[in-house]
Amino acid sequence: MDTSHDVLLNLEEVLQRFCLLGNEGSMFGSAFEFFLIVEGIYAWLIRPPSKRAIENRRLELEIKAAHIRTRGSFGPERLQRYLLSYGVKAGISRIRRLRKTLGIRGNDTDHLHTGG
């Protein structure tokens, strides 16, 4: 796996070749435009995760743990109340989106409780 430093070196090499060869037939209008693209990619590579991304990762772990503790029997609304009892505040839509991303679904237990 390339580190961001390796990727940067590869991009610098491409930039040098581009500047030496000129821009005939290139999809970039000029070497300066290409430089801006490389600079943007580099900035993206070294940018730290956003506060929301960090919070989402923590919430994903909380959702996984709660799903295991509750044996998968909670839907998103009930899970929200459960997490709140542990001091974890999150909106219902956010919980739904993260559960979908994680592939977590509540167990459908209604069919187990037939009268009789």
What report would you give on this structure?
- The protein has 116 residues and is an all-alpha fold.
- The chain folds into two domains: 4-46; 51-107.
- Helices cover 64% and strands 0% of the residues.
- It is built from five helices and no strands.
- Helix 4 crosses helix 5.
- It is elongated, with a radius of gyration of 24 Å.
- The model has no long low-confidence stretch (mean pLDDT 77).
**Count of individual beta strands:** 0
Radius of gyration, CA atoms, in whole angstroms: 24 Å
Which oligomeric state applies? single chain
Treating each run of at least 4 consecutive H or I residues as one helix, how many helices? 5
Which of globular, elongated, flat, extended, rod-shaped describes the shape?
A: elongated
Summarize the main sheet: none
State which percent range the strand residues make up.
under 5%
Q: Can you tell me the number of structural domains?
A: 2
Calculate the mean pLDDT score and round it: 77
Question: Segments where pLDDT lies below 50 for 5+ residues?
Answer: none
Q: Helix fraction?
A: 55-70%
Head-to-tail CA distance between termini = 59 Å
The assigned structural class equals: mainly alpha
Order of helices and strands: HHHHH
